[in-house]
């Protein structure tokens, strides 16, 4: 089995590195040639183009940023047309479920399989083999790609048909953003009552009200981190509003908007809840 990877940024680069460390043969390509060099130094082969890489691969992973990026790689760069019959494209980017389904429909006449395989976690999680991997697609295609997923992922969930993993990821992201909003509102309420917000955070983290949003809210007050996470949350909520039932999730979207507003303030060094430490 020959594996390939396109999208060697912070997240994708960590995933590709772990595929190499697992001893799997890996080819890579990047729009910026300099991004390829560290992987070649660790044993990867470099392709001259995205299509050339695709032609070599049994499983090709794509981890770029936006729907437009995925569309460009798959269609404009000739990846889909170059894939061999019975090969598999795994889309790790968080995109609209409809895009994964569109690519699957285009790939079917070519006998190319498509998995939507979004991940949740950080580059650090990938390097620790604890990245959450959600997979949609047929069982046969899932099994072909599983050695790569196991190189960086645990747990790994086969959700169902192509598109379902993206739906699951977006639900996860809506809940994560809403948890941040809940934590921010609760801690601001504590401050308004004259309580020590940091102490309240520590108390609740020891009780049944704990959440990851409450755990990380202090770290989000760093301006650079606030800008980065705020940008990701905005992107995720735009996708979720388009792909998921807005009426049912309206309360969660409202809380997500509160989190976005707070992180926007924190990116400018304003309205901090407390000093992290």
Strand order of the largest sheet: 3-2-1-4-5-6
* Structural class by SSE content: alpha/beta
Which stretches of 5+ consecutive residues score pLDDT under 50?
A: none
Strand content: 5-15%
Number of helices: 13
- Total domains, how many? 2
**Would you list the SSEs in sequence order as H and E?**
EHEHEHEHHEHEEHEHEHHHHH
Main attributes of the structure:
277 residues; alpha/beta; Rossmann fold; N-(1-d-carboxylethyl)-l-norvaline Dehydrogenase, domain 2; 2 domains; 6-stranded parallel beta sheet; 3-stranded mixed beta sheet; 9 strands; elongated
Describe this structure in words.
It is a single chain. Helices cover 56% and strands 14% of the residues. The protein is of the alpha/beta class. The chain has two domains: 3-162, Rossmann fold; 167-267, N-(1-d-carboxylethyl)-l-norvaline Dehydrogenase, domain 2 (Orthogonal Bundle). A six-stranded parallel sheet has the order 3-2-1-4-5-6, sandwiched between helices. Helix 1 (10-21) crosses helix 8 (139-152) and helix 9 (164-192) crosses helix 13 (246-267). The chain is elongated.
